[in-house]
Write the C-alpha cells for this entry.
Amino acid sequence: MRIPCPVCGARPSEEFTYRGDARPVRPPMDSSDQGAWVDYLFFRDDERGRIKEQWQHTGGCRAWIVVDRDTATHAVHGSELARDAAEGGQA
Amino acid sequence: MMSQYSVFQLLRETLRGHTGWRPAWRDPAPKQRYDVVIVGGGGHGLATAYYLAKEHGITNVAVVEKGYLGGGNVGRNTTIVRANYMLPGNQRFYSKSLALWEGLEQELNFNLMMSQRGVLNLAHTDGQVDMFARRANAMRLHGDDAEIWSPEKIAAEVPMLDLDSARFPVRGGLMHKRGGTARHDGVAWGYARAADRLGVDIIQNCEVTAIERDPQGRITGVDTTKGRIKTGKVGLAVAGHTSQVAQMAGLRLPIETHLLQAFVTEGLKPILDQVVTFAAGHFYISQSDKGGLVFGSSLDGYNSYTARGNLPMVEHTAEAAMSLMPCIGRLRLLRHWGGVMDMTMDGSPIISTTHVPGLYLNGGWCYGGFKATPGSGWCFAHTIARDQPHPIGADLRLDRFMTGRELDEAGTGAQPNLH
C-alpha cells in the first residue's frame, strides 16, 4: 500500500504513522461536556468503504495528512495536508 | 438422537468402513419465532447458545450464520489458550474461561486436541523481567499458575531460541503452564454439536440483513436471507463485523476494525514444545500437531475489512521470527492469511447489555477472542438470560467507556492499533 504524501509524493505505507478516522474533532479544552469527550475519544463509525483518515509521514517530511482510503479494498483515492483539510479542503 | 462419540464407536466404524457416521448437527429451516436469536455462528455464538440451553434452560434458540461453521475467525487464529492477564477485570474472566477449557472435551464429548503445553513470555530487558514478575504475582494472587523462568531454565527447556542475541538477549520468562493450544475449528464444531443436541437450531448460510424494532425501540426480530425471524432477544457475536451489524440497530461502538496476519510453515519434527512469545517485537509461535510452526505478530495498523494483509507486516513478522529462532530461516511458508479484528479503544472485549432493550453485544475481542470462547459464551448466555452482566464478566460492560472504567491492559490509551 502506497500513501500519496502531498509533499513527498507516493511513499510506502510503512513510512507513515496511523492515527485513524479524521472526522472526530476534539472538544474545546475547557469543555466539561463529558458526553462530547467520550464520543471524541472512543466512539467511531468504523465504516466499511471509503473513509478520511489521518496519517503522519513520520519517516519523511513529518507532515500530518488526511488520506481518502477504502477500508474494503485498500485503494487510496487521494490526500491533502491536514491543515488544508481543516481549512475546508476537499480530500 | 446422535450417538455419543467413543473409542468403541471408532473401532466399530473402522470395521464397517466408516459407513455409520451421521451429521454432527441438524440443518433446520428457521422457525417463525425463537426466544433468543444469536447472530454469528462462530465459537462465541455457538458457546453462548450451548450455555443458554444448558445453564439457563433456554432451548428455543437459533444461531444464524452467514457462512459455514468454523469458517470465520474461530478457524483463522493461532489457536492459543491462556489466562495470563494482570488487570483483575480481565484475569477473573480469562481464568474462568481457562477452567472451562480444561473440562470442555469431556463436557462436549468432542476431541478439541486441547494441549496445555505452557505459554512462555520472554523478557528481554531487566524492566520486562520486573514487569513479568509483577504480572506473575497478580496471576498467582488470583489463584492461577505462573512461574518466572531464569535464562538457564529457558535454555534447557526451549533450546532452539537465540538466547544471547546482542540486540534482544533473553533475561527471563513468565511461564504459564496451564496455557497452550486447542484445535480451533473443532471448538466450533464441538459446541455446535452439543448445542444442537440440546435443541438449538443452527442455521448456516443465513445472513442477517436487518434488525427489527418496535416504536418503543424494543427488539422484535431479525430479517435474514432465509426470511423473517421473530424474537424478543438478539445477541450479536459477529467478531470482525460488529460495527456493521450493530449499526443495523442504531448502535455506534468504541471499535475500529483492523487486520491481523498469521502464518504456517511446512511441517517439521518437534522442535518447539511450548507457545513462546517474543516481547521485544510482539511475536508468538507454537508448533502444531502436524509439525508446522504457527506464528503471528502485530496488526497491520490501519483500519481494514479486507481480510488480507500487506507485505510490510510479513517482513516484520519474518524479522521477529529470525531474531527469536534463527534456525527456522530456511523454512518455507505453507499458508498465510489475514483476519478482520474488531479492536476496542481499550484493548479489552465487550460483553454487555445495550441501550436497545433486547439487544445484547458480544464483540471487541481484538485479536484475543479464541482463548475466551468458553468464558465468553458462559458470560454472554448469563447476560442474555438474566438481563444483567455475569459477575466475572461485569467489568467488560459497554458502559465502561462512558464511566471512565476502561480496561487498558497494555496502557496505550484510546488508540486501537497499539493494543
User: Anything to note?
Assistant: Residues 126-141 of chain B form the longest helix (16 residues). Chain B touches chain A through 23 residues (CB under 8 Å).
